[in-house]
Write a structure and sequence with these properties.
- The protein is of the alpha+beta class.
- The protein is built from two helices and four strands, in the order E-H-E-H-E-E.
- The chain has a four-stranded mixed sheet, covered by helices on one side.
- A hairpin with a 2-residue loop joins strand 3 and strand 4.
- The longest helix is centred in the N-terminal third of the chain and has 16 residues.
Length: 71
């Protein structure tokens, strides 16, 4: 089975938006979905703190956002 993980944190509106989309897709296609709060893991917080939400498919980074936008 395909596994989708989303690195997130509380009060992240982009994460909330991504979760809605993923759950909508999950109703159509079968896959496991797990939300990981990066604030509970210092290594994840340091690695992905400015990129959340980060979406992994079967452990491979598939999508991410970035704070700050284009310059």
């Amino acid at each position: 089975m395909i596994r989708v993980d989303m690195y997130s944190r509380p009060a992240c509106h982009l994460c909330d938006d991504a979760k809605v989309v993923i759950e909508r897709v999950q109703r159509r296609y079968r896959f496991a979905f797990n939300v990981v709060n990066i604030e509970t893991n210092p290594a994840l917080e340091q690695a992905y703190g400015t990129e959340i939400p980060v979406i992994l498919i079967n452990g491979n980074k598939a999508f991410a956002t970035s704070a700050g936008g284009a310059e």
